[in-house]
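Field log, afternoon session.

UNIT: design team B
ACTIVITY: writing a sequence onto a fixed backbone
BACKBONE:
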């Protein structure tokens, strides 16, 4: 199953970093970027290196690096590690950004003699990135996309609840670009209102219906909600299996579901996806 919950943890707080593995998130995004003040960047890298030395976990470990030239090499030097699943590249705007990152990662992998398996999550935070999303999704190592909605909102100048109509365009682009490239569905953006879990639940359910899988979390309380929403219920699994059984009994082509509605191969593809997630 792909990761349902992606919990951001700032690396400058070693205590929080060590506790993060107990929060039941499927993936951690260890943050070296916006969650860490400039004066704490060196400490964050040191903490990450120390933490990785003895790490043993089935939780996916991602590291959000600083894309600026004065930081990226220093960040990658400690982030490219056998226990790290992938790199989150903020402010991804072009395919060149990913090719440059791939070269840097490959050089370090060769130097430290670890397999070339590190993945990349392209974090798109600008209008340029949205318009280039189709190419970005095909970039080297890219396994998934994520939209930084706060930075994107600032870049295009949208405000208030009515701005969601404009943001929806970007959200949809990420879904289509991911499907076109054959990579995992995009991860839903964070919600900074971590105390309003009911609203988080509603918006997470919406993201699921829009074609997203998994959601970024900035607080441990959000993890349980994301895990629940992106775990198929018993009823969803039962209905999916029933659809496949009915089509098989009909010998392919078309059949009728339990409600008397027509089902065909397109519906079967959705059912298989639900069952694959539930494995």
């Amino acid at each position: 199953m792909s990761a349902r919950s992606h919990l951001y943890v700032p690396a400058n707080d070693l205590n929080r970093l060590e506790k993060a593995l107990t929060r039941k998130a499927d993936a951690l995004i260890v943050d070296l970027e916006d969650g860490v003040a400039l004066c704490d960047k060196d400490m964050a890298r040191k903490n990450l290196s120390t933490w990785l030395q003895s790490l043993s976990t089935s939780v996916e470990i991602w590291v959000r690096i600083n894309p600026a030239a004065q930081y990226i090499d220093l960040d990658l030097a400690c982030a490219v590690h056998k226990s790290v699943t992938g790199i989150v590249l903020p402010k991804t705007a072009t395919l060149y950004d990913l090719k440059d990152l791939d070269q840097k990662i490959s050089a370090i992998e060769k130097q430290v003699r670890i397999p070339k398996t590190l993945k990349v999550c392209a974090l798109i935070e600008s209008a340029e990135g949205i318009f280039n999303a189709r190419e970005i999704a095909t970039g080297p190592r890219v396994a998934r996309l994520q939209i930084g909605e706060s930075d994107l909102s600032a870049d295009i100048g949208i405000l208030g609840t009515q701005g969601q109509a404009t943001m929806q365009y970007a959200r949809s682009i990420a879904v289509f670009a991911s499907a076109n490239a054959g990579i995992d569905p995009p991860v839903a953006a964070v919600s900074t209102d971590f105390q309003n879990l009911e609203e988080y639940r509603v918006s997470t359910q919406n993201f699921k219906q829009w074609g997203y899988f998994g959601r970024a979390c900035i607080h441990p309380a959000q993890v349980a909600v994301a895990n629940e929403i992106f775990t198929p219920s018993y009823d969803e699994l039962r209905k999916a299996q029933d659809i496949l059984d009915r089509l098989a009994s009909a010998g392919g082509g078309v059949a009728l579901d339990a409600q008397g509605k027509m089902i065909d191969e397109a519906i079967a593809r959705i059912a298989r996806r639900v069952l694959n997630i539930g494995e």
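LOG NOTE: The chain has a mean pLDDT of 93.
NEXT ACTIVITY: expression trials, pending approval
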